[in-house]
Design brief:
Elements lengths: L18 H9 L3 E6 L6 H7 L21 H15 L4 E6 L9 H12 L7 E6 L6 H10 L5 E8 L3 H6 L6 H11 L5 E8 L6 H12 L5 E6 L2 E2 L3 H8 L7 H14 L5 E4 L9 E3 L6 H14 L12
Parallel strand pairs: 1-2, 2-3, 3-4, 4-5, 5-6, 6-8
Antiparallel strand pairs: 7-9
The protein binds iron/sulfur cluster (SF4).
The site of iron/sulfur cluster has 12 residues, from helix 2.
């Protein structure tokens, strides 16, 4: 424990509420995510509107085995990889790629039930989706399942600004997100929101406004991504014809610190850097150096003597 750290939700040098700290407190153990691809697609792509312009063919997913591999084989394979790093760790099943509620409830049950019925040794379930792809029945299903096993539903927001959401072809407005958040507020699962920093033509003030909006929502956590400009995406093609400013690492760190300062200290920061596919990355190339980004962020927070929630009313 570093005594000079004024942030109370930390047992190391971090001045923000890390997911690692949250898991340690909740499960009394090291917990890791086993990333799975259940073969979902995305309604936003399928409906002929082209999808979000930054979205790669992998549906903004992480490094998973192909969905053609059975889920039980994916689970074992990914778990063994993680156990090599953390032999004592325990898994959470994480459905990340595309929109993981984009199916009829009967199909969702076939996919998710085994992860709630102790056919696997996962401590919990986490999944990413869109606000416009959560039906009442789906919400009720996960509400019920979350009573037996911790469940997290991640919902993409990316930006609260209408103009940006048109530029990136987000496909729904903030009103849709706000409506679903109200509905989920009383449910047993946690909600985690996603923001992306560095979207085209957004400045620091706009990104801070998005974070301030997140701070007011009834959610347990947030993921803050840096935009990855990936080869083959519509955004990359637009950028090559008509470049917009990409954030430097220093700008990103400055903006993230401002965002952390306005978020409630209890809100869990699920991620501050992403894992872009290096071979596909057009920019910003500094995002490959995740450890450097996080170390520099920590140092800058110490230098500024700041921490998550410094300017939030609850701290
Ligand atoms: S909602 Fe997600 S999966 Fe669908 S197009 Fe947008 S980023 Fe891609």
């Amino acid at each position: 424990m570093i005594k000079s750290n004024p942030f109370k939700y930390s047992d190391d040098n971090k001045r923000y509420h890390t997911l690692n700290y949250h898991y340690k407190k909740k499960f009394n153990n090291k917990v890791f995510k086993v990333v799975l691809d259940a073969g979902f697609s995305c309604p936003h792509i399928k409906n002929g509107v082209g999808g979000c312009t930054f979205c790669s063919i992998r549906g903004s997913g992480d490094f998973t085995l192909n969905a053609s591999v059975a889920l039980n084989k994916q689970y074992e394979h990914q778990k063994q990889i993680m156990l090599r790093k953390w032999p004592q760790g325990q898994p959470i099943a994480y459905f990340q790629a595309f929109t993981n509620t984009y199916a009829a409830l009967d199909t969702l049950k076939i996919i998710y039930d085994p992860f709630y019925e102790n056919q696997y040794d996962n401590l919990g379930v986490a999944l990413g989706t869109r606000a416009d792809c959560l039906s009442d029945a789906t919400i009720a299903y996960f509400d019920q399942q979350a009573r037996g096993k911790p469940t997290t539903i991640e919902i993409g927001v990316q930006s609260i600004h209408e103009r940006t959401n048109q530029i990136i072809n987000r496909g729904h407005g903030l009103d849709v997100v706000e409506k679903i958040l109200k509905q989920c507020a009383t449910k047993q699962f946690d909600v985690v929101l996603h923001l992306i920093n560095g979207l085209p033509y957004e400045d620091k003030a706009m990104m801070l406004e998005s974070a301030k909006w997140v701070a007011r929502q009834p959610v347990a956590g947030v993921k803050i991504h840096m935009l990855h400009l990936l080869k083959g995406t519509k955004m990359a093609n637009d950028y090559l014809k008509n470049p917009f400013d990409l954030l430097s690492m220093e700008q990103f760190i400055d903006i993230v610190i401002g965002q952390l300062e306005v978020l409630p200290p209890e809100m869990v920061i699920h991620r501050l850097t992403g894992d872009g596919l290096v071979d596909d990355l057009i920019g910003p190339l500094w995002t490959i150096k995740k450890r450097v980004v996080l170390n520099n962020l920590d140092k800058e927070m110490v230098k500024r003597n700041t921490y998550q929630g410094k300017y939030h009313a609850s701290y």
